[in-house]
Amino acid sequence: MNRSTLLLPVLAAILFVGFSSIYVVDEREKALVLQFGQVKAVKEEPGIAFKIPFIQEVVRYEDRILSIDTLPLEVTPLDDRRLVVDAFARWRIADVVQFRQAVGSGDERTAEGRLERILNAAIREVLGSVTSNTVLSADRVALMRRIQDSAKIEAEALGVEVVDVRIKRADLPTQNLEATFARMRAEREREAADEIARGEEAAQIVRAQADRTVVELVSEAKKNAEIIRGEADAQRNAIFAEAFGRDPEFFAFYRSLSAYETALQGDNSTLVISPDSEFFDYLKADTVK
């Protein structure tokens, strides 16, 4: 056996050991070097690093911001109106050594399960301290900030930083929706009935005022008409009296003609009167001069 034949396995072994001692950390990762389960080195910067082959191993974790969606959670605010809340959070591994100690041989999925329990507890605590109207109003932004602050403190034990928490949905449970809608309809119908009653009352007031104004105007007009008619009659009687004083015979003649005109109206008028009645004085031919 020649020397070249012996060198090839040795060279291969050296190359294998050399490659086994080199590892590369991506810019999206953090790495821990473990020796018999104990942390021996932390590699957070991207690049090439070395380890003891066969004795040490490299465990990699995400260095990017991760997201987690919580399952629908039922909470009870102060006014006892239950709400179903969906939320999501963004988080990242802040202390990789503490993260390893917290999750052990687990990974990010293990941390997500524990982080979800932390978020659910924070959501129940914060939303349970306010009314449902506050949860459903624009004040939700402040509530999400409180949830984030509470979860952030609890998540520090995992070596995790909670970057953001958002409430995606906060609705009434399905079984309560119909009752809530019925109550809302009843409230709107009551408000509509109140408005209609107030409108009818106002209409009655307006109609009463209008009727009173009509009565007052008609009464005033009748009074003025009677006054004018009385003044006219007085003037007429004064004129008649003056005319009678000037020429009594002509006045008697005029009054007789007016009586004839009133009595002999129509095409077929009949009078039953004695022929020598004074009514016919001015119709007799021998009296006309």
Short key terms for the protein model shown above:
289 residues; alpha+beta; Tetrahydropterin Synthase, Chain A; 3 domains; four-stranded antiparallel sheet; three-stranded antiparallel sheet; 7 helices
What does this protein structure show overall?
The protein is an alpha+beta fold and 289 residues long. The chain folds into three domains: 3-62, no CATH class; 66-172, Tetrahydropterin Synthase, Chain A, CATH 3.30.479; 212-287, no CATH class. The protein has seven helices and nine strands. Strands 6, 7, 8 and 9 form a four-stranded antiparallel beta sheet that branches. The chain has a three-stranded antiparallel beta sheet with strand order 3-2-5, with no helix packed on it. The radius of gyration is 56 Å and the shape is rod-shaped. The model has no long low-confidence stretch (mean pLDDT 83).
CATH topology of the largest domain: Tetrahydropterin Synthase, Chain A
Helix content: 40-55%
Biggest sheet features: 4 strands, antiparallel
Class from secondary-structure proportions: alpha+beta
Strand content: 15-25%
Give the SSE string: HEEEEEEEEHHHHEHH
Number of strands: 9
The CATH architecture name of the largest domain reads 2-Layer Sandwich
Residue-averaged pLDDT, rounded? 83
Count of domain modules: 3
What CATH first level of the largest domain would be assigned? Alpha Beta
Write the CATH homologous superfamily of the largest domain: Band 7 domain
Q: Would you identify the regions where 5 or more consecutive residues have pLDDT less than 50?
A: none
Categorize the overall geometry: rod-shaped
CA-based gyration radius: 56 Å
Oligomer: single chain
Number of alpha- plus pi-helical segments: 7
- Kindly report how far apart the N and C termini lie: 190 Å
